[in-house]
Design brief:
single chain; binds 1,4-dihydronicotinamide adenine dinucleotide; 6 strands; globular; six-stranded parallel β-sheet; alpha/beta; Rossmann fold
Length: about 270
């Protein structure tokens, strides 16, 4: 294992809810690799308490912030800057939620207020985090910003509903803000398109476990775990990926480029006969 990839780097990690969260694993890896950072989550997630254990393990603080609120983000950045002593080098956006998916509303029967909520929480919040960072000149040169996406941004999946559009918006924001922030300050912005992962957000999707097994069977390397995703995120925060920006990077064991696997065909044939 490499050591101290993030030595001297400071950042903010959003979205750690419990130990299954991609953000939780990222915090542990970032700490292991020498980074200093603050944790943040929506005030409601904070009341659930588990994040306090993570803060202790990472020797840091938690600053509550609703990522849909510009005022909360401003306060988050001010407090993070004070605690960490200066501008930051990395931001992780690991936030997603769709009320329609959560409440099992069909794609042909969406509640449009909830659609707006899904876009705001899962995608527009990313733009807000970037815009507030720009206005406050909060990120150092060659800083790195990563958000988590899913392949339903490019391909149709029957169960992903309005989160598909939310992820398409998220990836578009990474490209467009990547162009702007790269030119302005050499800040790089990417999304990672992750395998299905057994987390609270993932498991909230109808039929998730069956699809998880299917994706695992399709991918030549199997599904990528939250821990493996955390390791990839750390490389993107490190100086070894300085020229990567505006990309949607698949971290999925090869799923995105596989047509079909022999195992899936065999399974289908066995099932039919
Ligand atoms: P998770 O449920 O552990 O994390 C989602 C986080 O979003 C939670 O910590 C939640 O409190 C936070 N959140 C929700 N509303 C918020 C708000 N208004 N302000 C601030 N934070 C808020 O689940 P997971 O899977 O770690 O999700 C992280 C990211 O990874 C999400 O963007 C998700 O869509 C993405 N992703 C997940 C996959 C999966 O199968 N689990 C696959 C591909 C991407």
């Amino acid at each position: 294992m490499p050591e101290n990839l993030l030595k001297g780097k400071k950042g903010i990690i959003t979205g750690a809810l419990d130990e299954n969260s991609i953000a939780w694993q990222t915090a542990l890896k970032a700490k292991e690799q020498g980074a200093r950072f603050v944790l943040t989550n929506a005030p409601i997630a904070m009341r659930m308490g588990a994040i306090k254990e993570l803060a202790e393990a990472c020797d840091t603080i938690i600053i509550p912030a609703d990522a849909t609120s510009v005022e909360d983000i401003e306060k988050l950045y001010d407090e993070a800057k004070e605690y960490l002593g200066g501008n930051l080098d990395f931001l992780l956006h690991s936030i997603g939620m769709s009320p329609n998916v959560r409440k099992g509303r069909e794609y042909g029967d969406l509640n449009y207020e909830w659609v707006q909520k899904a876009y705001d929480v899962s995608a527009i919040s990313f733009h807000k985090m970037l815009q507030v960072a720009e206005k406050k000149d909060f990120l150092n040169e060659w800083g790195s910003v990563v958000a988590l996406s899913y392949i339903a941004a490019q391909r149709a999946f029957p169960f992903y509903s309005d989160m598909s559009e939310a992820k398409a918006i998220l990836e578009s924001i990474a490209r467009n803000y990547g162009l702007r922030y790269g030119k302005m300050k050499k800040v790089r912005i990417n999304t990672i398109s992750q395998s299905p992962t057994k987390t609270t957000a993932g498991s909230g999707i109808d039929g998730f476990n069956d699809f998880f097994d299917y994706a695992d069977m399709v991918s030549p390397l199997g599904n990528a775990s939250a821990e493996a995703c955390a390791e990839y995120i750390v490389t993107l925060f490190s100086d070894f990926t300085r020229m990567v920006t505006m990309q949607n990077l698949f971290h999925d064991g090869g799923y995105s480029y596989t047509g079909i696997s022999q195992e899936v065909i065999d399974n289908f044939v066995n099932h039919r006969s």
